Amino acid sequence: MKVKIAYIDEPPFYWTGPDGYVTGSDIELADMVLRAIGVTSIEHHLTSFEEFLPGVQEGRWDMNVPIFVTAERAEQVAFSVPVWALGDGFVVHDGNPEALTSYTALAEHSGARLGIITGQVQLNSAKSAGVRDDQIVMFKDQPEAIAALLAGKIDAFAGTAVGNRVVASANKELEAVAHAMSRETGAPVGAFSFNKNNAALLQAVNEQLRKYVGSADHRARMAKYGITETEIDRVATAQG
C-alpha cells in the first residue's frame, strides 16, 4: 500500500533537510501512523500552502500534513482527529523594539506591518483583532516572509508560537513572542486532511491516532522538535 502525503517547508513540523531528506514532527507522526496501518511506501510531496486543499481534493496526493482545522476548510476536506493545539505568536526583531506582543498591540501601532503566509489562519485572527489591510503583507511561504522581516520590509511575522521559536533560534537578529492564550477557547487544533471520498484511509488513520496521540512514545518523539506537553495535552487520546 502506497500513500502520498503533501507538505511545505515549515520547521519544526515539516521541512526538507540539506540532504533532501524530509523530516519534522508531523512527518515523523505521519510515518509512525501510516506504517502502523500497513502502508509500505510513503511518498512526500513538497507543495505550497495554498495548494494543500485543492491538491488533495483533486487526488494529486492522498493526504496533507496537519494544518489548523476551520469550518471553512472542513467544507472542502475531511479532517482526522486533532494531533496538536497551537497558539499564535510573532517573530520580531531582537528586543521587540516596537513592543508587538499581540494582534491588538500591532493594530494599535498604525505604522507596523505584519507578514502572513497566504491562506493561513493568522490572517483572520489579525483582522478580527483590528489589524488593517494596509498593515498586512502577504507572502507565499515562511522563508520569503522571514527574509522580508530581516530586510526591514515588515515589523513582525505571524505564525505558530512553536514554529516561531525555531525561526528565532536560527536567526540571532530575531526574537519569538508568544501571544497570551484565551482561557475560554484555548489554542486552535490541527489535523491531517483527506479527500472526502477517501473514507477508508481516514478511518484507518483515525483509529491509529486514537491509540497513539498522547502516548509516552508520541510525547518523546514530539519533544525532539520542541513540541511540549502543552501542545499535546488538549488533544491527547492515548494513555501512556
TrEMBL record:
<dbReference type="Pfam" id="PF00497">
    <property type="entry name" value="SBP_bac_3"/>
</dbReference>
<keyword id="KW-0732">Signal</keyword>
<dbReference type="InterPro" id="IPR001638">
    <property type="entry name" value="Solute-binding_3/MltF_N"/>
</dbReference>
<protein>
    <submittedName>
        <fullName>Amino acid ABC transporter substrate-binding protein</fullName>
    </submittedName>
</protein>
<feature type="domain" description="Solute-binding protein family 3/N-terminal">
    <location>
        <begin position="2"/>
        <end position="229"/>
    </location>
</feature>
